[in-house]
Amino acid sequence: AYFLKSYFFQPKLLPFIESFSVELKNPNAIKIHINEKKRAGCLAYNGKYVYFDKNGYALESYEKRFGDVPLVTGLNYKKLVMQKKIPVKKQEVFSYILELTMAIDKYGLPIEEIYIEEDGNALLRSGNLTVDLYNQEDIDVKIPELVGILEKLKGKSGTISMRYFDEYQKITTFQP
Known about the structure:
Elements: H1 2-8, E1 17-26, E2 29-36, E3 41-45, E4 48-52, E5 58-62, E6 71-73, H2 93-107, E7 113-116, E8 122-126, E9 129-132, H3 139-152, E10 158-161, E11 173-175
Parallel strand pairs: 6-7, 9-10
Antiparallel strand pairs: 1-2, 3-4, 4-5, 7-8, 8-9, 10-11
Helix pairs in contact: 2-3
């Protein structure tokens, strides 16, 4: 009965579920496949961590912070409501944050915080190092390059600027 019901009528999904499918294994058994929404980042709000998706919807709230999801700071909003969009001026910032977190995760960078500046650009924090990405361009080239840069500067403190960095000129500057 559940197999037929889920086949013809899409049930209401929980906020952290992207999609699901039901497979009939035999007359007495079904197999349910669930795809979770990717957590794009988390915000500190009222003493808890609120996790959001690529579209800017507040998915879930926990007192515990998951280490694989960077803390996002710098976003301006008055209040958060679970299962609703986080009210920021530029909603496209969330797809940029997801692009950053996926690249950070792919290359295993030790980034603890993503600070979104008022103009929408990002600063990344890794220990005592701050990475100024300068703009939203060439992220697919900048992030892999950071693997070696952060390794070389491990234990130091200062700012890494990628202002003049693009796919043709891989120029970074470091200011202690």
